[in-house]
Design brief:
By secondary structure, the chain is an alpha/beta fold. It has one domain. It is 44% helix and 19% strand. The protein is built from 3 helices and 4 strands, in the order H-E-H-E-H-E-E. The model has no long low-confidence stretch (mean pLDDT 90).
């Protein structure tokens, strides 16, 4: 899988090669998608102060079900407490 402290570009490259979605609380991934004009891998950003598994799982699981087809093609999904925003890649 890779090192825990790997640079964002290494994480994105691995996710793209292995067809995975990156889940992060880090805002840098959205910027990286925009700057590189990447078409994959999808990124889900959790923008919440409550990062417990119980809280995030509700947000993420429902979003995966709702946006599955778009995420498989390549997208940035931002999850806030009150709303969800999705943008198709490239940004």
């Amino acid at each position: 899988m890779g090192e825990i402290g790997a640079p964002d570009v290494v994480i994105m490259d691995w996710a793209r090669k292995n067809e995975h979605i990156v889940f992060t609380h880090d805002l840098d991934f959205g910027t990286a998608l925009a700057l590189t004009k990447a078409e994959k891998s999808s990124v889900i950003q959790g923008r919440t102060q409550n990062v417990t598994v119980t809280h995030l799982s509700r947000m993420v699981i429902s979003s995966l079900e709702t946006y599955k087809d778009i995420l498989l093609k390549g997208a940035l999904l931002v999850l806030d407490e009150d709303k969800k925003r999705i943008r198709i890649l490239p940004l």
